[in-house]
Amino acid sequence: ARRTKIAQFETQLADELARRNAEQLRTQIDKRRICDGSEELRALKERLHMAKVNKDRAQQLMEIGVREGMDKLREHKIAEHMENERLECVELEHRLGIEKLKQRERVKHINQQQIVTKEAQREEALAEYLKEKDQVQE
């Protein structure tokens, strides 16, 4: 008797679970049919999808813009650095030119001094020669 009751209870439980599962499945199918059949819901789904696509695209465009901005900033810094190096080279070349000019002036001055000294020595030697010549002739 007890076993029969247990078997009967298990059968009722299995039937109830099967009935609930079938009911749940029917409800899901009905919901899907209603959602798929509703033009309003379909339009809302489409709008939601488009909004998501637009949001993703806007995010991509923003990231591209940020990347491009960073690239431009980097390029600007590189160009600025290169221009500074160029200006330094121009300044160095200018200083070198001035230094060469000063060196030429120094060499020219030294040469002129040497010419004056040699001229004085030549004149002194000539005077000495003439003096000795006069002494010899006397």
Give a description of the structure.
- 98% of the residues lie in helices and 0% in strands.
- With 138 residues, it is mainly α.
Q: Which range best describes the helical content: under 10%, 10-25%, 25-40%, 40-55%, 55-70% or over 70%?
A: over 70%
Task: Summarize the helix and strand pattern as letters.
Answer: HH
Low-confidence regions: none
| Distance separating the two termini | 180 Å
The residue-averaged pLDDT reads 93
Q: What class do helices, strands and sheet pairing give? A: mainly alpha
List keywords for this structure.
0% strand, 138 residues, mainly alpha, 98% helix
Question: Short summary of the structure?
Answer:
This protein is mainly α.
Task: Summarize the SSE layout with pairings.
Blueprint: H1 2-37, H2 39-137
